[in-house]
Amino acid sequence: MSIEDAAAGHAIETLFQEGRRYPPDPGFAAQANARPELYERAERDFEGFWRDEALQRVTWFRPFDRVLEWELPYARWYLGGTLNVCYNCVDRHVEAGRGNRVAYYWEGEPVGERRVITFADLQREVVRFANGLKKLGVKKGTPVGIYMGMVPELPIAMLACTRLGAPHTVVFGGFSADSLVGRLNDMECEVLITQDEGQRRGRPVPLKRTSDEALAQSPSVRHCVVFRRTGADVPMQEGRDVYWHDLLADVSDDPASCPCEAMDSEDLLYLLYSSGTTAKPKAIVHTTGGYLVGVASTHYYIFDVKPDSIYWCAADIGWVTGHSYIVYGPLCNGTTGVIYEGTPDYPDKDRWWDIVERYKVDILYTSPTAIRSCMKWGPEYPRRHDLSSLRLLGTVGEPINPEAWIWYREHIGGNRTPVVDTWWQTETGMIMITPLPGITTLKPGSATKPFPGVEAAVLNDRGEEVGPGGAGYLVLRRPWPAMLRGLFKDDERYRQTYWSRFPGLYFAGDGARVDEDGDFWLMGRVDDVMNVSGHRISTIEVESALVDHPRVAEAAVCGRKDEVTGQAIVAFVTLKGGEEGSPEMLAELREHVGRKIGRFAAPANIVFTPELPKTRSGKIMRRLLRDISDNRELGDTTTLADPTVVEEIARRGKELAAAGEEG
Ligand code: WTA
Questions:
Q1: Which of 536, 538, 567 to mutate to test the pocket of ligand 1 (most atoms within 8 A of CB)?
Q2: Is 640 domain-assigned?
Q3: For the chain, does the N or the C end have fewer beta carbons within 10 angstroms?
Q4: What pLDDT band is residue 497 in, cutting at 50, 70 and 90?
Q5: Is 613 within 8 Å of 573 (Cβ atoms)?
């Protein structure tokens, strides 16, 4: 997508129109963790800033000799240092006498199912599970897959891996068996940790059944550990599968029985797969020292966490937001967190506000899609509850429209709380562009300024910086501690994807504008990646899933604007042998994409068309399809092989828009 397309397709005009400003509240500022001099400090002495952060936020087994080695496009941070993530997130808090502090309040989706897990409990559970994994042969370097719902055993499993030095890949519980297979095989996982079933909107999610399908095609996996969440009767394969509680029946919970492995700063911590512009997801590499420093330090300043904070990041741990800001950042800072298993509207649309009130949550971090859903449901739901404990609100994952930002602040934040709109990516590992609460003047719709030490810019097609108000491509100029260390076993794709568009600069794949104050306004992806409810989905991945269906000849996919989910997926499909589309076929194809990728990637609409618009060289004209989906004026179609195709599709597209969306 060109930058002009991105700008036109986005509600950026409305962003600028609003023009509201929220200067920092002096009371908040007086107590804030962040100080204005942080920016200047990081500019004056970039490495010194990150050295101090590393020493303040993290306990090192062996101190590092050097802060940074930057051999473009590869960075290495905290060279020579050794540390352990689990030690930093768990053990050291217990050793410091804070074992009784709550690490997680857990709320199951069924009302009344609750667990309180202190740091001492967490340590015992992690030690036990790590000892269990050892029995299965897991040791430093053993790749482990994790496919679970939002239960405390998920962070426990992740922490147990880090304790042993075993890198993990967490696969979001909404992914299909095929997606799970791809990840397990790519990383060559030896163990898979899953659960019998998840719980979602009152219905079971068959995680073990999906795991079984995947394991039939994942030869490297020797063992599957099954946590019992619902107690459903699931098949267990002799010799391969073992229940979590059986594995742990005779193991010790004494930390001395399972010491934290000393890991090098640059040892692999985890892989997280993310959609790119091809059918194959990218395996993003995060290592140990820099990642932990980056997430702990951003979490500390941006969320202004206090020793008595009750912090709730309402994302799923299966995505990077959960990795960095439910598990590693908050635990490293010794913060008390909330984990909620289910959906915000179960059993009713005030479930979240019930949770905020019960635990007296003071910091809430969620997505614009969630906020827009709440707006749609109406303010009567939050109004049923006392939300006065809230002190700070955050959003992430997609551009937030000013209307949603203001609603969030007024109806959830009581018109008092700062709202931090945080821009970052799986690749960046940590938040990169964000206000600092108590310091930054907030503008609804703007993520404002780069975090101290981060240097961002907006460039035009020729690589020149655009002036105030101009639209362009977002780039980052300097390395940062939590940055990806590459794509797993794919140096070429790493260089190509991030470092070739503007040589020497990190290209994020997002469009942005900068205003006259130097504040950043993010506009969304400028590549073939869609953002649906804050989830990254590749158009090409969905197209591949569609053409995999025996009756599909061709498919083209694009995102169209959606009031709640930001974008919704539209597919244009040509069936084989001139077959006409039907509602049954539509349902079948949605189901098919659900099976190939995951239900969240199923198109909201499918337009059946006898042909797809192509250029004379045979390339599908996606821009045109996007325009049709958004019901915009059609651009230039003169390069089109057969212009009448477009008229026909446009007619069908209009029908579709009129019929409204499905699913
Ligand atoms: C988008 C999620 C606008 C962006 C942490 C980015 C945002 C992609 C924002 C990364 C924001 C994330 N404003 N857009 N505050 N935050 N994005 O890897 O397009 O799942 O490139 O990481 O989400 O998605 P990912």
A1: 536
A2: yes
A3: C
A4: very high
A5: no
